[in-house]
Amino acid sequence: YNDAFEHREAFAMEYRLRRHDGEYRWVSDQGVPRFEADGAFAGYVGACIDITDSKRAMEAVEDINAELENRVAERTAELLAANRELEGFTFAASHDLRAPLGRINSFSTLLESRYRDRLEGDGLLFLDFIRQNAIRLNQLVEDLLSHARVAQQVVELQPLDLAAVVQSVLQDSAEDIREADAEIRLSLPPCRVLGDAHILSQALSNLVGNALKYSAAAAPPVIEIGVEEVDGRVRLWVRDNGIGFDMVYHDRIFEMFRRLHTYSQYEGTGIGLALVKRAMERIGGRAWAESRPGQGATFFLELQVAETADA
């Protein structure tokens, strides 16, 4: 303010005045310098405007915004608590189902091994039905437990050699790859990312299994795994030459229990890709896919570069 007057510059300020009746009012005071023809300073031209009402309106809006933010924070906390409770229930329920399900599997296996030759017609059909659904239910329970573990597991972010993680997952999946007679093509330049080794391995393992399943009819199945750095982030992709899917269903395939095909067409529980999405969220990454029907699919996992994260 003083500089403006000293150097004859325009000024603008807001301040509070107390009127003769004791009420405080807010005033916006603005002015610009006026000069004579010879350049001599002739004074200021400006206006004082009572902005009390607008000030009060702004304060009211700020109060409303603060209240809304508090409500959003409360609702978010409630949702997080409910989600944790649901995840805990899922874990406990799935864990408790393992015991009776194990007995069903054991006794149906005994029944089949000891008495199958005594059964005929509907008896054999019913026995096969029990065995098939027990196996399917067991897989569902295991997948639910895996998803719950990812959600509840303590995350330990650390620099990881991404190529080493990929090689480890492929080694664990070697038998499935051999049985599928699949060709694996790798493009893995040296790269270190910030992540949790166990959680990242789970996500990648699910993508490899998914690629093997949906490219089974290809001759031969080809799975490409590669890495590239884009805008300071690392993208790991898993590409197959399988049946693909319509991008209209992109978001749906990452939801729990959402399937694009019947169980008789492709086995599965509808949890695998939901686990991938959840796993990437836990380690500060994201997952998405690109595909066309009949032209295979490419799934992407995006991660932080370790050096960038440490800097």
Blueprint (SSEs and pairs):
Layout: H1 2-6, E1 11-18, E2 24-35, E3 41-50, H2 52-115, H3 122-152, E4 158-161, H4 162-172, H5 174-180, E5 183-187, E6 192-195, H6 197-214, E7 222-230, E8 233-240, H7 250-253, H8 272-282, E9 286-291, E10 297-305, H9 306-310
Parallel strand pairs: 5-7
Antiparallel strand pairs: 1-2, 2-3, 4-6, 6-10, 7-8, 8-10, 9-10
Structural class: alpha+beta
What is the average of the pLDDT values? 84
Instruction: Report the sheet-strand fraction.
Output: 15-25%
Tell me about the biggest sheet? 7 strands, mixed
Number of strands: 10
First-to-last CA distance: 42 Å
Elements, N to C (H/E):
HEEEHHEHHEEHEEHHEEH
Q: What spatial form do the alpha-carbon principal axes imply?
A: elongated
Helix content: 40-55%
Spatial extent as radius of gyration:
33 Å
Question: How many H/I helices?
Answer: 9
Instruction: Give the low-pLDDT segments.
Output: none
Q: What does this protein look like?
A:
The chain is α+β, with helices and mostly antiparallel strands. 50% of the residues lie in helices and 24% in strands. It has 9 helices and 10 strands. It has helices spanning 2-6, 52-115, 122-152, 162-172, 174-180, 197-214, 250-253, 272-282, 306-310; strands at 11-18, 24-35, 41-50, 158-161, 183-187, 192-195, 222-230, 233-240, 286-291, 297-305. The strands form 2 sheets. Strands 4, 5, 6, 7, 8, 9 and 10 form a 7-stranded mixed beta sheet that branches. A 3-stranded antiparallel beta sheet has the order 1-2-3, covered by helices on one side. The longest helix is centred in the first third of the chain and has 64 residues, at 52-115. It starts with a helix and ends with a helix. The model has no long low-confidence stretch (mean pLDDT 84).
